[in-house]
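Re: that backbone. Tokens:
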């Protein structure tokens, strides 16, 4: 079955065909690294990780690149304001790179906690200054950029004579011009206010992160790094470029324009954007201060698996409201899932497979939903219904043969990033204690058997006596 993805460029769900058969080259815009990951930021990373897992499950070989922005992202998301990393470092009395080192470590801990696998390449902007400078030179050479007082600007008027601009945002030039004039403080060095910076002169500005260049000692514009690192690791034209909805303008159109200007190619063929996680009707964001970090939620006691399940329980293009009920629901669903897997493990698996049809239907429906622009919400729903069928079959006969129920649940939940594999040593220890409890019960030593159950409960293993025997689920 073909995978369809909603391409923001055309506003249509398009059949996905990679440029090179069987191989997918995929770039997603990563974190600006100055603060901890909030659950809103975490959405794109969880979703793009799910997309990569799904593509691999469908048999593609994927190269996934996701950058880390450690310079150039200014507080106004354009070319004015302070560098976000520097600003935070100054507040904390740190060197920018001290902050970056610390935050990168925390970022990987947080993404790992929600089962985001580290991408194949995680390039940092500050490691690609030479490439960025060469890239700007190419754009100037091709006639689409100009230098003014040590700054270099992208020349929109020259560019639109040869290439499209604003198509991704569905904005015409007049509109963009008006918006630029009203949005930013006037920059008299620009030919037109909608031109954007490729290089900014740091001399006399107090800017700490700066490098020598042919134009000035300065630093790159924010949009440049993704054009440059995308090209370096994936080529002039690759398959998928993904990011948050806020990148529909200006980040992605500007990236794409730089790519056309330097290479003649529009960089990616499918442009994917996730909707926001909202907080009381507003985008959850660091700048507004209305956010909860992944770390806070883990400290509150939610498991990384539950946060991941929450993130994939909605479709990535739907606006979702942040709620603790959402996490609690995910915890309950996880418990139900784990309990079901335990019941299956304990069942005798006798006779004919009673779930053959259901399992086949699940595989088919799961794939159809995921093929439909990665509809993880419906795909998960299919899985939850299947769990009900497994339980119903075991309620009827605790030794029913449920076939490959366990494998299929583990396999498909893994695509969603929900890890069900248990720590082998830990589960053997718990099983051993349950055997001791069972023998205490046989000897009518209920004091010991209750003690074992209560102690296990206290350290997070809930014990339940079912028709299939005693089962345990981590609470
Ligand atoms: P930032 O740290 O603001 O650069 O954001 C990192 C990524 O997370 C970008 O792709 C943003 O579009 C995305 N993002 C930021 N806030 C949210 C949110 N509330 N919901 C979903 N995605 C978000
Ligand atoms: Zn980017």
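Recovered sequence:
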């Amino acid at each position: 079955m073909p995978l369809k993805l909603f391409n923001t460029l055309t506003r249509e769900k398009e059949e996905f065909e990679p440029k090179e058969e069987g191989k997918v080259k995929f770039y997603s815009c990563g974190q600006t690294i100055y603060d901890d990951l909030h659950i809103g930021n975490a959405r794109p990373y969880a979703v793009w990780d799910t997309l990569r897992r799904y593509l691999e499950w469908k048999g593609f070989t994927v190269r996934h690149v996701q950058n880390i922005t450690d310079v150039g992202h200014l507080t106004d998301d354009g070319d004015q304001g302070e560098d976000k990393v520097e600003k935070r470092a100054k507040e904390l009395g740190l060197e920018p790179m001290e902050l970056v080192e610390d935050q990168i470590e925390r970022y990987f801990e947080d993404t790992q906690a929600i089962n985001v696998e580290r991408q194949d390449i995680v390039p940092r902007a500050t490691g690609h200054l030479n490439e960025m400078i060469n890239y700007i030179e190419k754009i100037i050479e091709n006639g689409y950029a100009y230098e003014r007082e040590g700054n270099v600007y992208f020349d929109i008027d020259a560019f639109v004579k040869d290439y499209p601009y604003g198509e991704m945002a569905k904005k015409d030039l007049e509109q963009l011009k008006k918006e630029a004039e009203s949005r930013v403080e006037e920059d008299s060095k620009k030919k037109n206010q909608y031109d954007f910076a490729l290089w900014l002169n740091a001399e006399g500005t107090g800017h700490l992160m700066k490098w020598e260049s042919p134009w000035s000692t300065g630093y790159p514009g924010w949009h440049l790094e993704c054009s440059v690192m995308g090209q370096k690791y994936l080529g002039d034209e690759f398959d998928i470029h993904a990011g948050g909805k806020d990148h529909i303008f200006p980040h992605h159109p500007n990236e794409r324009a730089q790519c056309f200007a330097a290479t003649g190619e529009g960089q990616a063929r499918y442009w994917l954007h996730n909707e926001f996680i909202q907080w009381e009707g507003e985008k959850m964001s660091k700048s507004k201060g209305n956010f909860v970090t992944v770390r806070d939620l883990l400290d509150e006691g939610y498991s990384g698996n539950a946060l991941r399940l929450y993130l994939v329980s909605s479709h990535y293009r739907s606006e979702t409201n942040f709620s603790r009920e959402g996490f609690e629901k995910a915890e309950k669903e996880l418990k139900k899932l784990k309990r079901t897997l335990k019941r299956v493990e304990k069942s005798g698996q006798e006779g004919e497979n009673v779930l053959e049809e259901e399992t086949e239907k699940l595989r088919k429906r799961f794939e159809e939903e995921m093929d439909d622009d990665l509809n993880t919400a419906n795909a998960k729903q299919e899985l939850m219904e299947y769990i009900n069928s497994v339980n119903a079959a075991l309620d009827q006969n605790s030794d029913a043969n449920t076939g490959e129920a366990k494998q299929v649940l583990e396999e498909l939940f893994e695509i969603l990033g929900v890890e069900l594999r248990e720590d082998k040593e830990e589960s053997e220890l718990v099983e051993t204690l349950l055997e001791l409890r069972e023998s205490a019960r046989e000897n009518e030593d209920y004091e010991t058997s209750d003690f074992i159950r209560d102690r296990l409960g206290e350290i997070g293993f809930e014990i339940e006596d079912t028709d299939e025997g005693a089962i345990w689920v981590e609470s």
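The chain has three domains: 4-274, 320-415, 424-474. The longest helix spans residues 324-346.
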